[in-house]
Amino acid sequence: MLDPVLIVNAIVSGLLLGCLYAIASMGLAVSFGMLDVVNIAHPAMMVLASFVIAGLCSQSGLDPLLTALLVAPAFGFLGVGLYRVYHHFFEQSGDEAMQGLAFFFGLMILIEVSLVLIYGADQRWVETSYGGHTLSLGPVDLPLRMLLPAMMSLACIGALFVWLRRSFTGRAVAAVAQDRDALRFLAINPIRIKAVAFGISVALAAIAAGCLIVVQPVDAHSGHVFIGRILAIVILAGLGSLPGTLVAALLFGVIENLAATLWGPAWSPAVAFGLLLAVLTVRPQGIFGGAHT
């Protein structure tokens, strides 16, 4: 007989894990879903930011979540420059489909090899004052190393939603996802808007990195664990739907955790990706397909 308390804790832990998946997927949802830029190097950028954050924390003693917020603007500017390069060599010439994909694949390999050469194969980990503490709400246990990153993830995702809906630039980003040429009639440069949006996506990778390094150790190849998951979440949500990405990430986290609890960790990715295939069979456009922001 299944223990109800065990199931409830598995669901709650899955929701906390889903929040990590959500902030990790949100940047790719912006670049891939809204800008049609298949940045498969996004998880590698997240791992790169994790190494940067770990190094800064060891020198300054700052909390990794706070450090992620401080590092995010620098990664945002890096993303703007990266998009300019991508646009100049691939998008502008019309070769963005395969050659652009190869560009980001090469960038992913470059990041991984560089991290191995500089840091070796050792894992990076940041000890926090709250890492070993747990908040108990009746029978439900909430480890602070999962709860605080989840809260920060939701806060940043909420800020992204508000920015996209309320600010002029945010509304322009949503518009460029639907009709880039229409922006020219409003004297808005769609390339500049896309560069800003891509910068936001890379900044989100840095924020996800701060959450990740609190939750678990990271090595140079940790991006491999996430690339399939975040691509699946973005596709499951329906390309371009940020609320859908949040819902799909939470669903993914709960299903993975429940499967690991009931049948063992080896089953969790199989069940989660099985759900993806089942949903896409019934609804190829994803859960929220066609709904932007």
UniProtKB/TrEMBL annotation:
The organism's place on the tree of life at top rank: Bacteria
Keywords, in A-Z order: Amino-acid transport, Cell membrane, Membrane, Transmembrane, Transmembrane helix, Transport
GO biological process, one term: amino acid transport
A Pfam match: BPD_transp_2
Subcellular localization, as worded in the UniProt entry: Cell membrane
GO cellular component, one term: plasma membrane
InterPro entries noted in UniProt: ABC_transp_permease, BCAA_transport_permease
GO MF assignments: transmembrane transporter activity
Membrane topology: Multi-pass membrane protein
Keyword flag Ribonucleoprotein: no
Transmembrane segments: 6-32, 44-62, 68-86, 98-121, 146-164, 195-218, 230-255, 262-282
Similarity annotation: Belongs to the binding-protein-dependent transport system permease family. LivHM subfamily.
UniProt name for this protein: Amino acid/amide ABC transporter membrane protein 1 (HAAT family)
